[in-house]
Amino acid sequence: MGEIEVDESNNLSPKNSVKIILKTVGPSRPFHLRVPSHIKVRDLRKIVAEGEHLPIENLRLISRGKALHDSKNGEDVYIQLADGDSFIVAVRPKAPPKHVRDGYDDDEDDDDLKFQLPESAARWKWRLFCILHDKLKLPDIVLIAIFSLSVKAWAFIVLWFMLAPVAHKWELGPLYILATGFATIFLNLGHRQAGELSAYSIFNEDFRELPGTFNADRVDRDIRTGQL
């Protein structure tokens, strides 16, 4: 099987560069590529994608049966290369449109329940994720619940549990729970934009109803116009 030599226009010095072998999945022939001996996985994927005109977002490099990741714990992963190192280039195909997938049972629907922390997340979030996922083996649904809340929300939760024993001691437990419920409702009401109608006509100017509101006046109008 022949080999394709990639143009080495980056003027790398022989001391700081190595020649690696890349094999694509499929009938394509392997090719050589000269790259720095110490390089980020992210940069290596970019070089391969540009050299072979492949979509970098779907390109994966596999070495010794393991896929190489751009980052770990929020930090870029570097790789030390040597002459003759071999990698498999795999390009993940694009998913079919949703209207095509709706007619089939797809096992990949379970991926929606798998939690994936964004690579741009803070370093402390990556460390916490590694502890909860790798060491404590928490299920993905729990990780989704933990990381979907902001730091401010977690601060309120911790404060609530700290004050709960105090309310119980003063026999104010039911009142404390009711106050928590009302506070949760009022803090999540949101704010209307200028000119936006409320969902309740009593709060709108001139008691104006929303289009499609179903009430006695609507039934009466439909009867008079012969629509019922």
TrEMBL record:
Keywords: Membrane, Transmembrane, Transmembrane helix. SUPFAM superfamilies: Ubiquitin-like (SSF54236). It holds the Pfam family SAYSvFN. The keyword Signal does not apply. Residues 18-80 form the Ubiquitin-like domain. The chain crosses the membrane at residues 141-163, 175-191. This is Ubiquitin-like domain-containing protein. It comes from Saponaria officinalis (Common soapwort). InterPro entries: SAYSD1 (IPR039159), SAYSvFN_dom (IPR019387), Ubiquitin-like_dom (IPR000626), Ubiquitin-like_domsf (IPR029071).
